[in-house]
Amino acid sequence: MLQINNLHVNIGDKEVLHDINLHIDDGETHVLLGPNGSGKTTLLMTLMGFSNYSVTKGTITYNGEDVTNMHANERAKRGIGMLFQRPPTISGLKLGKMLAAISRTKQENIPELAKSVHMDKFLERDINKGFSGGEIKRSEVLQLMIQNPDFVMLDEPESGVDLENISLIGTTIGSLLEKDKHLANRKKSGLVITHTGYILDYLDADKGHVMCDGQIRCHGNPREILKDIKQRGYKECLECRHA
Amino acid sequence: MPSRITTPELSKVDQARLAQSGIDLSMKNRCGSFLQMDQDVVHAECSQEEIEVLSYAKAFEKYAWLKDYNWKIVSPDKDEVTKYVAAQKDPKGYVIIAHKGSSNILPIQACLYLGKDQIQHVHNIIIAEEGAELHIISGCTSGAHVGKGGAHYGISEFYVKKNAKISFTMIHNWSENIEVYPRSASVVEENGVFLSNYVCMQPVKKVQMYPTATLKGANSVARFSSIVIATPGSLMDLGSRAILEGVGASAELITRAITKGGTIISRGHINGKTAGTRGHLECKGLILKDGVIYAIPEIEGSVVGTELSHEAAVGKLAKDEIEYLMSRGLDEDEATATIIRGFLDVKINGLPEALQKQIDTSIDEAEKSGF
């Protein structure tokens, strides 16, 4: 589904991602771990096509098509979607209006979907204005439910969410990634950033990667990597130079 | 239901322009109507009990006491505009009186249409007597082709009595060669509410106005809301002023201004003269193409216990907001229009749904032409 080859990314004049290589197959969910500031969000924003992140070398191929230089909306139309950790507040734009704009060509029942993630009372509110951490995440999940992407990137979906709502968000994301379907029928893929690992209880992740200083340093079983990091921290990852 | 207004002398294009200014010639959603074309009063009627819509001349024939409301809160000597209107031997305009306890659910529409190369002058007096509730939509427009240009001089005096409410929604739809000089003032008595809404999304050569609300009564309220777009060549010098005199009086002055190359001067002044009064002034501006937005908010407090605040911001569309919407599948133009639409979306507390919809329709029209 997604193939990243030798990807180098600049923010302004500074290179922040170096030689990223990643392959995610249909139906797979990968986890991206790493200390704060290591470049995880930068990678997701680059894959989504945000213009502040310029690819100086390498390629991003999605379903066989080179999307490296495509605008975000063209990538979205091809099935790439993202849950933002800190989405912008848009004064005056009501969440309901935005959802209607996203669902133009679809026949989604917006009030019903909003109710399912306890966001029905937020449809007349300005997007993200005064939303708590959990409300932001539920608003993001709701947008993704309508967008229904094939490749879902999740930037810390559990941060700021209380324990009660983690289950709701986790289950909803799980069904976005078709975790309720049999492995053979699962087509949707995901790339998840998490620090706590709570979300993994719902996502059944296949592979894990550790990112340090703008590089992917190692790959492996996500739960084992997480366990290791919980015990030993990132110190050794930072020192490690073997990707 | 009042009868349909016929304007056979108006072309289809100009009838559409009237509709764009919120004028419903079918009268389906209106309870009364006043239509002045150039200097001719074409129509004045109201089907709502205890509410009268009269031409200025007829009203003064009928009610001698109206002299007590004539040029009482706008001074005839204020400036060249007021002097010009005061000097007219045959004053035009309308008088709307909502008698004690009356109310209209469907608004009254007042239309001032400028079709010729000249100065159109009007003097309007609007009175909501004790306990009355009066909603008016004023659509001001010109013909698609007004020769070398024209001007509109409009005096309006609003009287909101005890426990009464007036909402006045003015939609301007002039053209590049028209100058507009409204001069208006209002006095609001105890528990009275005055809502003044101004929408101008279409080109105009110049608009200059600075309406003043004097909140005399205890717990009286005024809310001014302006939603404007200045196209290249337009000069919009807009202000609103609230003088807080009654104990517990409060005022809110809200402006959303967009320039696409024109100039907007957004003035505002709240004067808190009494303890227990509150006022807030807010101007938000977006510069889409090089033009000027000049916000001049003034708050003036002279006693302990008045609380006044202001907030002004002028900027451009944020790239991260546009790209956020693009990441949901909207193209750049759609994302931009969606954000602008939100920026202009001011919900006015206390405004009937029909009038809020009319304001929304004006914004929709502007959106269709890509803002």
Descriptive account of the structure:
The complex is a heterodimer of chains A (243) and B (371). By secondary structure, chain A is of the alpha/beta class. Chain A has 9 helices and 12 strands. Chain A has a single domain, classed as P-loop containing nucleotide triphosphate hydrolases (Rossmann fold). In chain A, helix 6 links the parallel strand 9 and strand 10. The model of chain A has no long low-confidence stretch (mean pLDDT 92). By secondary structure, chain B is an alpha/beta fold. Chain B folds into 2 domains: 306 residues, no CATH class; 54 residues, no CATH class. Chain B is 16% helix and 45% strand. Chain B is built from 6 helices and 21 strands. In chain B, strand 1 and strand 2 form a beta hairpin. In chain B, helix 4 packs across helix 5. Chain B is globular, with a radius of gyration of 20 Å. Chain B starts with 11 loop residues before the first helix and ends with a helix.
Give the SSE map:
The complex is a heterodimer of chains A (243) and B (371).
Chain A: E1 2-11, E2 14-24, E3 29-33, H1 40-48, E4 53-62, E5 65-66, H2 72-77, E6 80-83, E7 90-94, H3 95-102, H4 110-116, E8 126-127, H5 133-147, E9 151-155, H6 163-176, E10 189-193, H7 200-203, E11 207-212, E12 215-220, H8 222-232, H9 235-239
Parallel strand pairs in A: 3-10, 3-11, 6-9, 9-10
Antiparallel strand pairs in A: 1-2, 1-4, 4-5, 7-8, 11-12
Helix pairs in contact in A: 5-6
Chain B: H1 12-20, E1 32-37, E2 40-46, E3 51-55, H2 56-62, H3 80-86, E4 94-98, E5 108-114, E6 119-128, E7 133-142, E8 150-160, E9 165-173, E10 178-188, E11 193-200, E12 206-209, E13 212-215, E14 221-230, E15 235-238, E16 241-244, E17 250-259, E18 263-272, E19 277-287, E20 292-301, E21 306-315, H4 319-326, H5 332-344, H6 353-368
Parallel strand pairs in B: 1-5, 4-6, 5-7, 6-8, 7-9, 8-10, 9-11, 10-12, 10-13, 11-14, 12-15, 13-16, 14-17, 15-18, 16-18, 17-19, 18-20, 19-21
Antiparallel strand pairs in B: 1-2, 3-4
Helix pairs in contact in B: 4-5
